[in-house]
Amino acid sequence: MVRKLPASLFYIQLYQIVDDRSSDQTISWSKSNDNSFIVWDSKRLRRDILLKSSSVLGRNLTEFIAKLRSHGFKTVFKGPGELEFEHDDFVRSPVTKKVMAKALSERIERFDAQIKTLKSRLKAKKASLKVENLFQNLRI
């Protein structure tokens, strides 16, 4: 049963990165567990993914691991140099992928609506300032 993760940007970005086949040499789903992923190359993760993404996932491996833990991920101890993380609700599945895509789409729509509102407020403020300026010019 797939439970719904919160539609936070952290989960969305993490799912996109783990599910991206082009990053499989760096980070990928575990082959033995559908609710865990493995960091294969921590240096490449930092250089190619963390530094190029927003700071939502962290800027270095320490921050990344701390954020994983704060979002409910547990470390799976396999051996030295192996980093595997699991979360009961972070599952590789078409349903989860669809939920993440929908959540991202909804976030984009909300962001677009916020931009539209801010533009409208800015336009009203400019108009108000223009009227105020005209009144001041009339007093001269």
Helix content: 40-55%
Radius of gyration: 22 Å
Largest sheet: 4 strands, antiparallel
Query: What is the helix tally?
Result: 4
What is the overall silhouette?
elongated
Uncertain regions spanning at least 5 consecutive residues: none
Helix-and-strand structural type = alpha+beta
How would you briefly describe this protein structure?
The termini are far apart. With 140 residues, this protein is an alpha+beta fold.
Can you put this structure into words, describing what you see?
By secondary structure, the protein is α+β, with helices and mostly antiparallel strands. It has 4 helices and 4 strands, in the order αββααββα. The protein has a 4-stranded antiparallel β-sheet, covered by helices on one side. β1 (27-29) and β2 form a beta hairpin. The protein is elongated, with a radius of gyration of 22 Å. The termini are far apart. The mean pLDDT is 83.
Question: What is the topology?
Answer:
Blueprint (H helix, E strand, L loop, with lengths): L8 H11 L7 E3 L6 E4 L2 H9 L10 H10 L3 E3 L6 E4 L7 H46 L1
Antiparallel strand pairs: 1-2, 2-4, 3-4
Helix pairs in contact: 1-4
Please name the defining characteristics of this protein.
single chain, about 140 residues, alpha+beta, 4-stranded antiparallel sheet, 4 helices, 4 strands, elongated
